[in-house]
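Quick one:
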Amino acid sequence: QVQLQESGPGLVKPSQTLSLTCTVSGGSITTNYYYWSWTRQPPGKGLEWIGYIASNGSTNYSPSLKSRTSISRDTSKNQFTLQLSSVTPEDTAVYYCARAPVVAGKTVPEFNEYDYWGQGTQVTVSS
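Output:
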């Protein structure tokens, strides 16, 4: 049973960098073939995909967030990390990490294709 757990500060000031870590247990983040993703849900809105790091270490980001996003991993700790720079109050959301199997011919998984999710962590951007 794979488990994912998000961690990081719940409050970030505008213009700072949001940093969240997802710790994975029950499976290795280097095992083929999976996407290890970050998504978020702003208050009153739907899920928004942020990006992923694949089991081979390649990354892919949402075009709307690409300029501010970096996803990296620490394989020794079985963790992957999201950094979102220059945050504004519009980045306030519940942030989730999740795993999706790679599907041939698709570079961005659908939300219904994710098989494991973290419980989510609230991040508020406010001064």
